[in-house]
Amino acid sequence: MTITLYELAGTDLSRPFSPHCWKTAMALAHKGLDFDRKTVSVTQVPQVEGGVSKTVPVIRDGSRVVADSFLIADYLEETYPDRPSLFGGEGGQAMARFVESWSQSTLHAALNVIALQEIHDRLAPEDQAYFIPSREARLGKSFDEVAALRDAEIAGFSAKLTPLRVMLKSQPWIGGSSPLFADYIVFGALQWVRLVSTARLLEEGDAVTDWFERCLDLHGGLGRSAPAAG
Amino acid sequence: MTITLYELAGTDLSRPFSPHCWKTAMALAHKGLDFDRKTVSVTQVPQVEGGVSKTVPVIRDGSRVVADSFLIADYLEETYPDRPSLFGGEGGQAMARFVESWSQSTLHAALNVIALQEIHDRLAPEDQAYFIPSREARLGKSFDEVAALRDAEIAGFSAKLTPLRVMLKSQPWIGGSSPLFADYIVFGALQWVRLVSTARLLEEGDAVTDWFERCLDLHGGLGRSAPAAG
Q1: What GO terms are given for molecular function (chains A, B) (predicted)?
Q2: Are residues A141 and A203 in the same domain?
């Protein structure tokens, strides 16, 4: 049975951009499961599957509805244990939470500043009207204040990837010799900015760039199928 | 058979302070293995077990000699598979490398600045003579230049622990419901500064502080057995 993935998009439906939804798309592909992607706008999220969650991703798998990218990964791992593992065991499942916390508090914090205006510009007018106050409240800053920080965040972004860069000296994936959900967690963040922003954050010759390109190639080029912001 | 752990100490043998050696001490205790701790000074390291490594920890387990804290953990996991796992599976083993890279590039980078002079002051004169140029070369700065950065590094340190702090909202250990080697990796960094520095980097009421105190209690209070710098 085909799983339905509800994910966020702006006016350009070819670029669903939510980092968390990308984690789930990659997780579903990793498990080799068939899935349909249904895009919803920011203001449509509260109606998904009868209002089960304030955020996407949400999946429907037969009679089961699950929200939250990490809980979905947990669900897939438990429900489809004979398919390729997303965690490589309980230790990997636990440590993926550390990777998530790092990605969220370090990368997302910066990307929320870097891409704020560009995300806004990709939304329909009714979504923009919701997005501006909700983001200003979350960031504790006005759009103008965030814009003033953008150049410094772009300049400092590469250094935030140092832990991943150092790790890539000893193995090709966060999951070790092959990718696991922890890779998709970090991929989601960088895919998000690839799809919405013209900021160039990854430099050629950087091990992180090479890793990200390998991620884009995974699962038949699933990530690459959405075109980069031009 | 008792395993020998060679670890670093200064003039005060009750405070072996190397973060990497603490990782190994905790890993050996986690596996429930008997071990003797042999302290060596900075300048004695190249003579350990016939000069097998430029760094400690080094362990001898019967006829096997292994150096490097992560490789020792790998060795223990492989050699003693029936004892409590250090990684919780292959995924956890791989992701512990990410935790190591994060700890090294973020925490150690700061602690090398914060504790530099205090480490120096705990060494014997012949070790100090080696330590000064070797650390100045590694840090690319003189002791005076490092000293000028110390207050800012102390002030900024708590923020560097944010990924761990955020993760602790969803689980009590990096290993999940119980500690794994990844916990000992981060513990090693904070134990190092606890033993050599009077800088107070962990605040009461912080989830990271609570986690660190739990680490100090593990394995019969192994970490707490070494007195904090006063």
Answers
A1: glutathione transferase activity; maleylacetoacetate isomerase activity
A2: yes
Q: Quick one: tokens of B129?
A: 């003579």
ipTM value of the model?
Answer: 0.97
> Which chain A residue is nearest to residue B166, measuring alpha carbons?
A101
| Same domain membership, residue A103 and residue A26 | no
The confidence score (pLDDT) of residue B224 equals 97
The CATH number covering residue B154 comes to: 1.20.1050.10
Whether the predicted pLDDT of A182 surpasses 80:
yes
Residue among A94, A102, A176 whose CB faces B102 most closely = A102
Contacts of A98 in chain B (CB under 8 A): 95, 98-99, 163-164, 167, 174, 182
Cα separation values, B142 from A215, B123, B146, Å: 41, 18, 6
Residue after which a domain boundary falls, among B79, B105, B128: B79
- Can you give the residue range of the structural domain that contains B149? 90-223
Give the one of B94, B166, B171 whose C-beta lies nearest to A176's C-beta. Answer: B94
| Residues with Cβ within 8 Å of residue B7, at least 6 apart in sequence | B16, B18, B21, B22, B24, B25, B37, B38, B39, B40, B56, B57
| B84 belongs to a structural domain | no
Mark whether A184 and A134 lie in a shared domain: yes
What gap in Å lies between CA B73 and CA B71, rounded to an integer? 5
Residues of B with Cβ-Cβ distance to A176 under 8 angstroms: 90-91, 93-94, 97
φ and ψ of A201, to 5 deg: -100, -20
